[in-house]
Write a structure and sequence with these properties.
Number of strands: 24
Strand content: 25-35%
Radius of gyration: 25 Å
Shape: globular
Largest sheet: 7 strands, mixed
Helix content: 25-40%
Structural class: alpha+beta
Number of helices: 12
Bound molecules: adenosine-5'-triphosphate
């Protein structure tokens, strides 16, 4: 079939994606056998591969391909003073209201989505309390002591430990300004109203990079990182008409922030932020210097000027980006002969399974398995000999597998297999000996 986009239906309702993700083991409710736990999700065999591929690509792009960015992996629990310095203890809150009738809680700034009240007599309007501030940090306790001093927080963002580590990393890695520190890791927010699948969760992953520069270069680096990060989202395959940047207006900016741009993706529930690029000035380092009593200023080795570096931050949600990739790739297509298929058109470098090896008949299992074993040493490969070949192709389309390698009776004599392309569904015969190299090249990410 030709790639006739007129016969293609894009994702309209999140329900279809949620159901595919659960059915195929991408993402499903955490603790499902207990009825789930609101705001927490588990990634299954396909989901963890997708997520790992995305993280590896980001790490390659941000850390490994650059001389001026170092990676870290900090503890999830930081010294509680960290969050006093960053302002989270005092200010990291959302306005919350309760409905006195149905007892549900809502974010006061999102009441448009509150729906109808199910518990009031004679009215379907909610009976809201006045908004009050609700701190989003999740607390825990350290050690055996029950007193307040033992309270600690699960980090609400991954960047603050980077500031704590700034001096150590700069010295250990012998970096000079400008340079960056990056990390990928879990963050936790006690969101009042988790929703839209993984979009707003209480536990999620962030991939963040803090770039430290001289005050005279902050605009240059802000623009550099804004453009770089947008390029990344295009490169991973998000469609141009579903991506845009949105600069924050003066009244939206945090008081320490000079400029901020969101990268937004068009989800079925509207345009939403997947990444933020922020000019945070010297706020973080100055505050941590003040609260820790450690001098975090640096001296320019050439001019001997002493200054606190300015920080440009790039902060992307790994789960939100995975969700964008799944939404972007989902398509239902009408095929010739009245058949249809669901296909995940995701970038081959992100696809959980790179190729499925499918013998035409179970009688060919032995050589087909041997081929799969050979490919597996380099790529995530799936072997399947159950059911008719059309159905096996459909299962791979739905999992986003970019290639199927079909081993048939001729393969025994001509040493060739059929390579089927997920998106175009075209089939090509190639030598078995070429399969590994062809696949490896096709599923690599662009530099
Ligand atoms: P929002 O306004 O949507 O709550 P935010 O502006 O608070 O997001 P940041 O603090 O800038 O978000 O965090 C950076 C990135 O972390 C976001 O762009 C998003 O991708 C991700 N993120 C933030 N909160 C959540 C969440 N509750 N669930 C999943 N991802 C999140």
């Amino acid at each position: 079939m030709s790639d006739d986009r007129s016969a293609v239906r894009r994702l309209e309702s999140m329900e279809d994606l949620v159901s595919l993700c659960a059915r195929r083991g991408f993402i499903f409710p955490s603790s499902e056998i207990y009825g789930g736990i609101n705001g927490f999700w588990d990634y299954g065999p396909l989901g963890v591969e997708l997520k790992n591929n995305l993280k590896s690509w980001w790490w390659q792009r941000i850390v490994r391909s650059r001389e001026d960015v170092e990676g870290v992996d900090s503890a999830i629990i930081a010294h509680p003073r960290t969050w006093d310095a960053s302002g989270h203890t005092e200010h990291f809150s959302d306005p919350m209201v309760d409905c006195r009738a149905c007892k549900k809680r809502f974010r006061a700034d999102q009441l448009g989505d509150a729906g109808k009240c199910s518990s009031r007599e004679g009215s379907s309007e909610h009976d809201f309390t006045e908004p009050r501030s609700f701190n989003l940090m999740l607390t825990t306790r350290i050690g055996a002591s029950e007193d307040a001093a033992a309270t600690a927080y699960l980090r609400p963002e991954t960047c603050q430990p980077i500031f704590n580590d700034f001096k150590r990393v700069r010295e250990a890695a012998r970096q000079k300004i400008p340079f960056g520190i990056a990390q990928i890791g879990k963050a936790f927010r006690n969101e009042i109203n988790p929703r839209n699948f993984t979009f707003r969760s209480r536990e999620f992953e962030q991939a963040e990079m803090e770039y430290f520069c001289h005050p005279s270069e902050r605009e240059k680096w802000f623009e550099h990182w804004r453009d770089e990060r947008l390029r990344f989202h295009h490169d991973i395959g998000l469609d141009a008409d579903r991506l845009r940047t949105r600069a924050h207006g003066e009244n939206e900016l945090a008081h320490y922030c000079k400029a901020a741009v969101d990268v937004e993706f068009h989800f079925p529930f509207g345009w939403q932020e997947i990444e933020g690029i922020h000019d945070r000035g010297d706020w973080d380092l100055s505050r941590h210097a003040e609260y820790s009593g450690k001098d975090l200023a640096i001296t320019d080795p050439d001019t001997k000027e002493r200054f606190v570096p300015m920080v440009i931050e790039t902060s992307v949600g790994v789960d939100r980006t995975c969700l964008a990739i799944l939404v972007n790739g989902y398509a239902e297509e009408e095929l010739e002969g009245g058949e249809s298929r669901t296909v995940l058109r995701i970038h081959p470098a992100l696809a959980p399974v790179k190729a499925a090896v499918l013998p035409l008949s179970k009688k060919l299992a032995e050589p087909a398995r041997a081929l799969a074993a050979r490919l597996r040493s380099r790529l995530n490969v799936f072997y399947d000999d159950a059911g008719n070949i059309g159905r096996r192709y459909r299962r791979q389309d739905e999992a986003g597998t970019p290639y199927c390698v079909t081993y048939d009776f001729d393969s025994e004599t001509d040493g060739q297999v059929t390579l089927r392309d997920r998106d175009s569904m075209t089939q090509e015969r190639i030598p078995i000996d070429d399969v590994a190299a062809r696949l490896a090249a096709a599923v690599d990410w662009p530099t």
